[in-house]
Amino acid sequence: MWKQRAVLAELVVPSAFAIPRDFDFGDYRLAWNGHGLALSPKGDPGKRLWATEGGFLAAGIGEAQVEEHRGALFVDERRELLCREQSLDSFQGAGQRLVLRGHLRCADGAVSGYALVLEADGGRGVRLAVSLDDPRLNRLYLNWQRDADERFFGFGEPFSAFDLAGRRLPILVQEQGIGRGLQPIAPAADLTARAGGDWSSSYAPVPYFLTSKLRAFFSESSAYQVFDLRDPARVGLEVHEGNLTARIYSGDSPAALVRAHASVVGHKAPLPD
Fold this sequence. Notes:
about 270 residues; mainly beta; Immunoglobulin-like; 9-stranded mixed beta sheet; globular
């Protein structure tokens, strides 16, 4: 289980920089309180779309060994280096964009710059992009806050659960399995062909969720990634590449959040008569 432990950053901020301030870009506002961030619509500061407390970005070097058996995939991740000490050095706003810059210090002493860009996207939300200066780093770990009673829905077709709060969910297209953990079917399928699957196996996963608190997030990365919802105070996203683009949606109802997402990824064509 140690390989599944969350990777959390430690934020280091000079006292002179730990001054609360607000940054407006487009229709949105990012509030900095000296140790955390809160994103909200400019006219509704009480509506929190995305927020962090302390460190929110780490990186590293990893190597994944992947085995395939009859459409089932098994990923064994080895973390070779972690960069968990995060600094936040500047905020630079210009029109619809706000750029946060800082550095990540690694366990071997190396330091990489990073940039986190927030770009207003009209009423449907905010685009988020993370990039690293060091091309060696091929893992990103992004963490943000959640409420303890928040429920998480979506993620494509997770066949064994409706509310994914409390779970660690890999986004990996594979066969859904025979039995999916059901006794004694799944163990028998695993014994003969390693094809039993488990609760998370799905041939249609999607890195998108919406919550009972009317928050929604979509990762646009095509790399292997894992959403970690086990911590009642935090959402974790592990991405197996050194950059990330994503969307933080804004909406006043679940239907509005679904429409915002559909306006990005497209709608299914109507069925013929």
